[in-house]
Amino acid sequence: MAPPRPRHGPRRRLLRTGAAAAALALLSGCAGAGGTSFGGGDALNVLMVNNPQMVELQKLTAKHFTKETGIKVHFTVLPENDVRDKVSQDFSNQAGQYDIATISNFELPFFAKNGWLHELDGYVAKDPGFDQDDILAPLRESLTAEDGKLYAQPFYGESSFLMYRKDIFEEEGLTMPEQPTWKEVAELAERTDGSRPGMKGICLRGLPGWGEVIAPLTTVVNTMGGTWFTEDWEPQLTSPEFKKATKFYVDLVRSHGERGAPQSGYAECLNNMTQGKSAMWYDATAGAGSLEASGSPVKGKIGYVPAPVEQTKSSGWLYTWAWGLQKASIKSDDAWKFISWASSKEYEELVGATSGWSNVPAGKRASTYANPEYRAEAGAFADVTEKAISSADPKNPGTQPRPTAGIQFVGVPEFTDLGTRVAQEISAAIAGRQSVDAALATSQKLAEKVAEEYR
């Protein structure tokens, strides 16, 4: 994905001041929860999200990476919203508390432009065994900044798709279409709701956060004809298309979604699906590895189909959790050794051997999908995942032109603040505390303030 580039000349402040840096940080205010200790000495300090693949990496590092290199690694593992906030604070200040952090293809263009990241082309050139050409093209492009330099390496890549319980569908006499529409998904959610005690028809994120409820919701908006902004930066959150998509999403999760939906994000929906509390789940393709992992109670019971559509041919997002090296780090050489190891073919083989190939952090290397061992164990979702990633179109994800690249987000730094505030409004609607119309009316005003910066 090419770096997002506003078409109408935004004010070039892009986080150069404290006020703009605050725009990139989330308003959660909980980044310090639990405290943080640092490894000190020669240890690398790595900040990362608490997704299952990251937790597996933490378990394997000392026994393998440290044993082979002598480099100690201290991990700080936090929920997604907290990680985003803490990374933004530390990297914007160039405090150097963390040498490496998981960042996404959303933050990378802004971080790189402001000189917060160490470029990696030099390290790649000296490390031919890493095999940069094996990284899937959409991810290479999304981690290359406007200056043409590479600033991060993917730990895994993902799109989004629909996961469903094949056994439940068979018991209920239901058939999942090869390319479902959202209307069909809503009907299937109604049919499967209550099919077993405690089981709901679908799990959809409702947790506030621009990377939580806003991500799947925006893909629904895209395929139903909506957009956050026109190509001339006119906010569209109260447009008929945006309203239709949002009401559909809210009504679906309220009628047939998980209990506690306003507090449910990726982790909660994964848990619900694993424990048999949901018949369907629309979310990141990365979730499949956990569902099919050895010991999963639903292993072999899940079917996978592309993200539901309405007016577009595809609607899955494009996302990667990638390793960014802070420019202020004084351990950049050691940091590259860790990044190279954690994103390598060899690391995937290690996970395959120790935890099963379905648990490999995939979605980033072409060789993964050609690996017979991977395909033997992850065949249920491998092809669907690869197709979803390759068909994602960040520049034109909907039915109308838009001012920046981005599928499940708007590619400007202010979106962290805007998306989070809008998410709070949407989550309140899911909780029944206000109507969708009221939520979007407030959201439209918030979007108007952002649009003023770019017209």
TrEMBL record:
Designated name of the protein: Sugar ABC transporter substrate-binding protein
UniProt KW Signal keyword: yes
Source organism, top-level taxon: Bacteria
Record's signal peptide: 1-33
Signal keyword on record: yes
Keyword line: Signal
Pfam entry (one): SBP_bac_1
InterPro entries the record matches: Bact_solute-bd_prot1 (IPR050490), SBP (IPR006059), TAT_signal (IPR006311)
